[in-house]
Amino acid sequence: MVKITKSLEIFIFFIIVPIILIPTKSNIAMFSTLTAVAIICVCYLKYKKLKLINLKDFKFDKYLKIIFYKSVVVIILTLIFSYFFDSSKFLSFPRTNFFLWLIVMILYPVLSAFPQEIVYRSFFFKRYGNLFKNKKILVLVNAFLFSFAHIIYLNPIVILFTFIGGLIMAESYSKHNSLIKVSIEHGLYGDIVFTSGLGAYFYHAQGLTFG
Predict the structure, then answer these.
(1) Domain extents in the chain
(2) I need a labelling partner for 116 at 20 to 30 A (CA). Which of 39, 95, 153, 179 fits?
(3) Which residue, 142, 117, 118, 116, is CA-closest to 129?
(4) pTM recorded for the entire structure
């Protein structure tokens, strides 16, 4: 019965909710929903007396080093893909709207990446991890659901990138179990996507210019 209930929760929260948001085409609706769900997840974890953040999360250990090494590879590959996929948008965001780009670089990791990681990593792994006997299946399902959440943009590039990113971050979290570290990783990946020019596909640009 517990497995059925949790499976139903996954279907409602991670499949139905993103589908409902598709017609809105609204950044406000999207971020409001993300914030509300993240708050609910934090309340659940606090109720279960599960720690979100530990002091060890701030240590520059081997996992953080691995994250930075991976980030360098992701940066290079993303820039190469962006240039050949659509050279007209390559680095267009920082070139055409530097101050807005700077604000996004600072705020995205905090206001978007962090709450996403609360929901898709900390909450999901702690609430639903025991549904999956195989860790690889858990990582794969988590990455799929993370990618599916971005269906609101109705763009295959977004789905592809978020699935790959979801795999990388889910695998990282399964190893170090650190919300801070995976949020740093998510923030770095998101910032490079916006910087490269691909950010235009990850946002409902209503009055904002990404190049």
Answers:
(1) 2-201
(2) 95
(3) 142
(4) 0.91
